[in-house]
Request: fold
Amino acid sequence: GAVVSQHPSRVICKSGTSVKIECRSLDFQATTMFWYRQFPKQSLMLMATSNEGSKATYEQGVEKDKFLINHASLTLSTLTVTSAHPEDSSFYICSASASTDTQYFGPGTRLTVL
Amino acid sequence: SQELEQSPQSLIVQEGKNLTINCTSSKTLYGLYWYKQKYGEGLIFLMMLQKGGEEKSHEKITAKLDEKKQQSSLHITASQPSHAGIYLCGADERSQGNLIFGKGTKLSVKP
Reply:
C-alpha cells in the first residue's frame, strides 16, 4: 500500500519556539493532505486540508497563524507550530490522498512543549 | 504490532437497508474510534468505545465493542444516500502511544 512518512516522530521544544513537522508521500503523488491533532475521547480532530499549490483550508477554531501549513509539492506538506506553548503538546498526524477515495496516514509526531 | 482488520472493504446497499461494518484487532483494544470520510474531505469523528460490551448510538448509527474488546461493529439502520462514504476504525496502540487504523470500508447507498 501507499506509504506516508512523518518527521520527526518525536520532538521536545521550549515554550515560545516554533516546530516544523513534515509529511511526505513516498510512493505516490498526494493532491490533498490532511492534518489532524489527537484529542482525548475524540482521538483525531481535523485541523486543516491542504491541496498542492493552494492555501490550506482550516477547520473552525484552528488558528491559521499559529498552525502554518505549506503544501509546496505533490509529495510534501509541512505543519509549523509557531510560538508553541505547553497546551500545543499533542500527537499530530497527517494523511495523504491521491484521489477522493483513500487516505493514507502517517505514523504521527508526538510534540511536547516544555 | 497491533493491526486492525476491517470488513467488508466495500459495500453497496439499497437505500433503506441495514448494514454492518466490522473491525477486528489482533490484540485488546484500549480505545476504539469510528470515523467517516466523505469523498475528498477529512475524517469526521463518529464514536469512541472503551469498555467491553459498550454500545453507543447516534441517529441511525450504532457502534458496539465486544466483551473481549477485540472486535467492534458499526451498524447503520435504514441507510440513506447521506450515509455514503468511507468508514474507518481506529485504535490506540498502547505500546507506542500511536493511533492505528483499519483500511476502511467504502459504502455506497443506491437511491
In short: Chain B touches chain A at residues 31, 33, 35, 37, 39-45, 48, 86, 90, 92, 97-99, 101, 103-104, 106 (CB under 8 Å). The mean pLDDT of chain B is 89. The CA atoms of residues 93 and 99 of chain B lie 6 Å apart. DSSP finds no helices and eleven strands in chain B.
